[in-house]
Amino acid sequence: MVGDNIDPGIDSRVREGVVGGPVGHIPVMLKEVLSALQPASNKLIVDGTFGAGGYSRAMLEKGACVFAIDRDPDAQVTGKKFLQEYDGKFQFHDGEFGQMDEICKKAEIDFVDGVVLDIGVSSMQIDEAERGFSFQNDGPLDMRMGQSGLSAGDVVNGAEGKDLTRIIGILGEERHAARVSRAIVACRDKKPITRTLELAQLVEKTLGRKFSDRIHPATRTFQALRIFVNRELEQLANGLFAAERILKASGRLVVVTFHSLEDRIVKRFFADRCGQKGGSRHLPQIEALQPCFRQERSGPVKAGIKEAELNPRARSAKLRWAIRTDAAVRDANLDLFGSEVSLSLSGRI
Ligand SMILES: C[S@@+](CC[C@H](N)C(=O)[O-])C[C@H]1O[C@@H](n2cnc3c(N)ncnc32)[C@H](O)[C@@H]1O
User: Fold this and answer.
1) Ligand 1 centroid to 29 CA: how many Å?
2) From the CA of 283, how far away is ligand 1's center (Å)?
3) For the chain: N or C, fewer Cβ within 10 A?
4) Angle, in degrees to the nearest 10, between helices 30-37 and 8-15
């Protein structure tokens, strides 16, 4: 990563592929993440989205201990290398960050000093055609980060048309979701859609493509299927609640998101948790809830111009962070967020 204000030491090691594992995944806004998290010796930090270990390695190099989680079995390979390299300072757990507090408790960790989440897919997942995330490389229509459960192909070929319209419209923010959904249903009635390029070409044929279009017409449909298959928004919301439970007072929660649906969840969570709640003069017996987080800056931090030029993933990244207070944990109620967080199928696959 070559950002505007990136730590030069880390920067050169990233380019050599030392920080962040394979050169394939460049950690986004690393300098800004470190500045918000403040990793240091005697601090224990949860990296809930280990990926290629870019953030983890940078935190370990600053002397912190890291408890890493990733749901992708492929991330374990890098995790094992880290275990050898950072013996005693690093742990890796295969699982979902939405349950990070339970995972930590099983490892006899009650509280931590920091939590970082770098939401979305890694470059390795996108680049590996067989994982089926990319509409540019042909592969099976899969998209499962955890490599188990319903695949994108199961949803495309088995969901009811109206569910496909909701998924593509809400999670892909695709204005023409109904047209895409009708085209999918008409096509799969003849033969199942099993390959990424097949779906990409079908969407392109349905929506057309102008020379001036900045993105491929299938981008939104692929985004919707990926988010749905991996329950990404629900995981994010539950990850924020879990971080609230596991952070000690003065602990830091740092989240990097890549599109508006994700950023909205983080923004709403912090707005809610940084505010005072409950209590009223009519019900004096109910005590007001004290803010359980405080923010030093309310708006998002964005990547610098140079980083955005060099790393396309950084262009849409938004970083938000807050510091845990000593106030009690609040209810983990998904109603805080929009209904898109727990979108489900109405019919059977
Ligand atoms: C953008 S990458 C993280 C890259 C990492 N920060 C680095 O510097 O190498 C996101 C990673 O999070 C993982 N992931 C996504 N959602 C997850 C979840 N709910 N629980 C655990 N891991 C998740 C993905 O499998 C992927 O490896």
Assistant:
1) 15
2) 44
3) C
4) 130
Q: What is the pTM of this model?
A: 0.91
Contact by Cβ (8 Å): 211, 217: no
On whether both 48 and 183 belong to a single domain, the answer is: no
pLDDT tens for 94-138 read: 999 999 999 999 999 999 999 999 998 998 999 899 999 999 999
Q: Which of 201, 229, 257 is the last residue of a domain?
A: 229
For the chain, the domain total comes to 2
Q: How far is the CA of 334 from the centre of ligand 1 (A)?
A: 22
Residue nearest (by alpha carbon) to ligand 1 atom 14: 49
Ligand 1 atom nearest the C-alpha of 239 is: 19
Same domain, 16 and 119: yes
When computed from its CA atoms, the radius of gyration of the chain, rounded to whole angstroms, is 21
**pLDDT tens string 274-327:** 998 765 556 655 668 899 999 998 899 999 999 999 998 899 999 999 999 999
Beta carbon of 52 within 6 Å of any ligand 1 atom: yes
CA pair distance 205, 203, nearest whole angstrom: 5
Q: Could you tell me if 202 and 236 lie in one domain? A: no
Cα-based angle 33, 80, 152 (whole degrees, multiple of 5): 75
* Residue located nearest, by CA, to atom 20 of ligand 1: 96
User: Length of the chain, please?
Assistant: 349
Domain boundary among 206, 229, 252: 229
Contacts of 71 (CB under 8 A, 6+ apart): 94, 95, 96, 97, 145, 146
Could you report the per-residue pLDDT of 183-233, keeping only the tens digit for each? Answer: 999 999 999 999 999 999 999 999 998 888 888 999 999 999 999 999 999
Domain containing 206 — which CATH number? 1.10.150.170
Give, using CA atoms, the residue closest to atom 22 of ligand 1.
70
The boundaries of the domain holding residue 86 are 8-123+232-342
Residue 138 falls inside a structural domain? no
